[in-house]
Protein 1
Amino acid sequence: LFRFSHGKTVWVIHGITGKTAKLFWKNIVNHEKVTVTFDRKQTGIAVLDPSYHKSNYFI
């Protein structure tokens, strides 16, 4: 995904509750290019805008 993304990319990923999906989502949250994430139980939203400070929210 990162290869096809730029500084204004927003990802919406549905289905982040399974074992493999949780690991995938955790890797996204911890990635240096991802600045803001929103965890909505089954859906994750990731923002790759470098002008934002690193923040993670659980909604």
Note: The chain has one domain: 2-58.
Protein 2
Amino acid sequence: MDVGQPKDFLKGTQLYLDNQKPIIPSTSNLIHPVIIHESVKIPFNCCIGPHVVIGPNVIVEEGVRIKNSTILPKTTLKQHCFINTSIIGRKCIIGQWSRVENTSVIGDEVVIKDEIYLNGALVCNNKTISENVLEPKVVM
């Protein structure tokens, strides 16, 4: 399926999830609809959802908040990071207390350092981000 634009992909995911029955048990830290691969462990003090897809072998540390986003396989979400309305690629590391939002698209194998803010960033594969991106832009 080719939805063309990240915003359209996220909207399509939301529409799909709105019409699905939950496939994992409800707990206090999940706001349905969500799809979380069975290999993923969610610490109790995290808040996931609504409209979230988390792929296989993603590591979610304590205090993470994710909504309206897709997290692709083998990514690590460090403590207290916040992901909103974004797509995170494969094998990424999102640093502690980092914030990724506003239709940011993070390529594969990207490292976002601790306490970094990304606002609508489009980050190419294999990059290390150590400075804030305050306005939407492409990071090559």
Note: The longest helix spans residues 6-18.
Protein 3
Amino acid sequence: GASGLVSVHIPATVTNIGASAFAYCPLLMTFTVDSANSAYQSLYGVLFSLNGTVLAQHPVGRGGVYTLPEGVATIAAGAFAGADGLTSVIVPTSTTAIGDGAFASCANLAAVYFRGDAPTTGEDVFGKVLGIVYYPPTASGWGATFGGLDAFAWNAAVEAGAGFGMQGGVFGFNVVGSSGMVVIVEAADDLTSPAWTPVSTQTLSNGSAPFEDPGSVDKPSRFYRLRMP
């Protein structure tokens, strides 16, 4: 890739970009697209097809967590390739296909969370990646591995016993599940018309993590649920 490339503007006249055209550009942070372009659009700096069903290229220089928008059906070949700063990706239920080498050489990609059934994959989707794939227990098409990575059902649960209940004036419990999994704990004050609010994001080091809710102190009742990122 072009080592010094920071941004890319797609003019109206460019309507066909080859696979992996901007992969391995380590400093690339954003795409912009001419409003008259008939094939592509930029959403928050990420390059998509005009109808939003194909994620064509994620800027390689961006790191952290990325959540694909619902409606993306295809992750293009090389779309994230070489994104060393990427740590986790959340893939929506709408995604049904992942292209060749889409996440290749993402050196720090630790977890990929799928919210739906297993998509079809091209070659070396996760080449040189050592992360883990998580999927909903009720989803179909999953096995012990996916694209060469270990795959586990997202099986977070609340552990009864020591640590469950009021501790030091606040309510808490232990969250258990597959080691390394990320769990978001949400709370609501009633179940009639619940307004679920994220309270904590837990990483299950060695398969468990303690949770405490400071907001429980002055609540007559409090309800909790666990969800994927």
Note: The CA atoms of residues 136 and 154 lie 5 Å apart.
